[in-house]
Amino acid sequence: MKDLKERAVRGGLARLCGQAVNLVLRLGFMVIMARLLDPEDFGLVAMVTVVTGVYEIFTTAGLSSATIQKATVTDEQLSTLFWINILVGTILCLLCVATAPVLASFYHEPRLFWVTVTMGVGFVLSAGGVQHSALLQRQLRYVALATRETLSLLVGFALGIVMAFSGYGYWALVGSAIATPAVSTASMWALAAWMPGIPRRGVGIRAMLRFGGTITLNNLIVYFAYNFDKLLLGRFWGADALGLYGRAYQLINVPTSNLHSAIGGVVFSALSRLQDDPVRLRSYFLKGYSLVNSMTVPISIFGALFADDIVLVVLGPKWADAAAMFRLLTPTIMVFGIINPTGWLLQSVGLQGRSLRIAFVIAPLVIAACLIGLPYGPKGVAFAFSAAMTLWLVPHVVWALHNTVISKWDLFLATCRPFFASIVAAAFAFGIQFYTVNSLHLASPLLRLSLVGGVMISLYLFIFLFVMGQKAFYFDLLRGLKGSTPSTQSSK
């Protein structure tokens, strides 16, 4: 525990740097593929991934979280969990084969049959690296994890681009989706240097299976709720509409999801080690939470104001209709940034049951909103989704924090500071854009984005760090980086 702070800070920095590189790769892949493929190609694959994404939740079966959360874990437990993951991955692969004709019939699209069958291979590939990844996270070896993720994305994206250039159409997206987990799992085996043994009974994994089962059910319900919009749009509005909506959702969600992945993994690992130390647990959680929202809030507000130019620059002119959906979805992404980190807290201290009950309430709320918005097309669904999540914000926070070491005032302060700084900076940047368009006739969307983005970032950092007094927090993070030499790898 002595060097936990330094290791967590270093791990967080490694994850942030890795996710920054991955964000550039993802955006670059999106830019290139949006120009090589049509909305229909993305829509076809999205029709499949909306359903196979449900199966993907079962790939880990929550057992990676169980491995990380448990105070101590033996080699026999890891080996047994590994083979359970392999069994689950194989079942999911076979389930894809069985689901293929159903999807083709549901969407009235025969091309989906072989896409679904092929996507099933990815489940076996992913399952083989679940426990290796959890082991690396327990040891806070986030440099190794970041390297693995970057390498796998590079290979997967490179294959997808080559296939797209060669005229394979939507199969380029499928090829990329299969290559990425294959390289990821192979890399984790090399980095973890751990070989699973034979599975054994009576090694004390029952509690871990219960924990993992609860996490899996929670993730399943939330996934279904948050992807019901895509299922409906694909069925009733077609591949083209789903392609536009899906690209808009991914474009606004990629930066913040990468950020949550980078910080959330480190914070969850650290909080799991601090279950019996409420003072330090509160401090670590609020630091991670503040860090997430200091970046999520300005990204969301910037996206809402400058959606048209962002879509033109990243996706190109043929995707211009996605800008309205992009803008309407930004409130949803901001709410995600506020409420999702509470899951780190609940699961790390063993309150995963409460997290599951919250999910049971979110699901019908979001599904009802999507059904209300469906007659109005993708824009109606995007508006309804954001309206539902905004209404749910306060009840979620109150319920999640009840009888925990974190108060509602703690979260209010952590959110209102970046929100105020973002609003002031965004208003000034919007004024700059209005002036450049109407007075300087700056026609290039890339130049406009560069100008207003630079203005907003600079003013936001000045207000947030100096006017609102957050400079000390980030300087403390820097001192944590410099305050110790890299620690050695911990044991299981």
Q: Fraction of residues in helices? A: over 70%
Low-confidence stretches: 481-492
Query: Describe the biggest sheet?
Result: none
Strand content: under 5%
Q: Give helix and strand order, one letter per element, not per position.
A: HHHHHHHHHHHHHHHHHHHH
- Counting copies of identical and different chains, the oligomeric state is single chain
Radius of gyration: 22 Å
Amino-to-carboxy terminus distance: 14 Å
Instruction: Describe the global form.
Output: globular
Mean pLDDT: 83
SS elements, strand count: 0
**Overall SS class:** mainly alpha
Number of helices: 20
What does it look like?
Helices cover 82% and strands 0% of the residues. It is mainly alpha-helical and 492 residues long. α16 packs antiparallel against α17. The C terminus is likely disordered.
Q: What distinguishing features does this structure have?
A:
492 residues; mainly alpha; 20 helices; 82% helix; 0% strand; globular
